[in-house]
Amino acid sequence: MSDQAREAQPPQDPREALGVGPEAGDEEIRAAYLRKVKEFSPDRHPAEFERIRDAYELLRDPRRRTMHMLFAIDPAAPLTMLLQSLPEHRKFLGSKPWLDVLKGK
Asked: Nearest 10 degrees: CA dihedral of 10, 22, 17, 90?
């Protein structure tokens, strides 16, 4: 794929690249990555393999996954999805005063 074609495509959500949902845990993300690697070998599909590898690198680290979730959210998406997933990721978010503001406390 040329650089111009790559730039023309909108960035894809890493969860979509691996085929997992927003509530996917570590084991489910790893299993999806292994399935995709078997399907798209680096020899025959280098661009697709690179996209899958990048998505897995982002999602396998809980801290990076949390940061992506916080800063790459669709502005039109409801805030409730974010607030429901906070207990799982709260330990990576630091102090809580701004979280209380988000929750309405």
From this structure: 80
d(CA 58, CA 74): 18
> Are the C-beta atoms of residues 69 and 89 closer than 8 Å to each other?
yes
Which CATH number belongs to the domain containing residue 14 in this structure? Answer: 1.10.287.110
Instruction: Say if 87 falls within a structural domain.
Output: no
* Domains contained in the chain, number: 1
Please report how the helices 62-71 and 79-89 are oriented relative to each other, as an axis angle in degrees rounded to 10. 160
Per residue of the chain (105 residues), give pLDDT as tens: 455 554 445 557 888 999 998 888 889 999 999 999 999 988 999 999 999 999 999 999 888 887 777 777 665 555 555 566 655 555 555 555 556 656 665
Residue 81 included in any domain: no
